[in-house]
Amino acid sequence: MAEYTVVTSDFINVSITSSGQKNCIERRFQKGITIDDFKGKLELLTGGNRSTMQLEVFDKNNKLICSPNDGSRLLGSYPIDDGMIVHVTDNFMRLDDDLANVPKFEISDDDYSKRPDTVKAFLAKNKLGKYNEEEMKQKEEDKKREEESEIEWTKNFNPGDRCEISVPSQPKRRGTIMYVGKTDFKEGLWVGVKYDEPLGKNDGSVNGKRYFECPPKYGGFVKPLYVTKGDFPEEDYDLDEEL
Q1: Which of 49, 37, 53 is nearest to 88 (CA)?
Q2: Cβ partners under 8 Å of residue 237, min gap 6
Q3: Which Pfam families match (predicted)?
Q4: Which of 70, 204, 223, 242 could disulfide-pair with 219, CB 3.0 to 4.6 Å?
């Protein structure tokens, strides 16, 4: 069996489109994964199935570059560059328009509460989930301790401080702390970071509310315990030297 190796940078930033969705999703992938593993990740993004999906890669001018469908090959062994579009075609994928035509069963909250055969009735009868007072009390205490830990961890965080982000299952990233505090998009304490690379999800604003200023794709919000403040110099990313 032939061996394939990655000869370019370790990661690739591409846009994902599919026959089952109208929107475009931008994601970063390791080039060292096989096409089978790549398709597995695309299952979560497109709703397709790795065994039936077919991939085509287009450049910014919509020119077909390659069709990476050999499951044993590495993603990085194909001529895919940053900014290209990976289009997923799957004839067995259910389209969004199809879902809109599916009849929906509706029931009022009052009628639902009276039924003895529902998940709600089962949880209440067996004192599970929110119907378990002791469990709910423990969750509240755990939440309070977590909030106290976050406040203690970030008490010396200030806008302009350098930091390193270490989110589980993701590569480490460096950046600058721009915001520390509560947000409208999710409860709890959050740290707004301007990354050194365009690896973020926003420009410092979420759902129309601005928390800090930075270029598009350079901003992100991270839970405090994933942020380490320190003397982390900005790394030199000289893209001209990449092969």
Answers
A1: 53
A2: 196, 197
A3: CAP_GLY, Ubiquitin_2
A4: 204
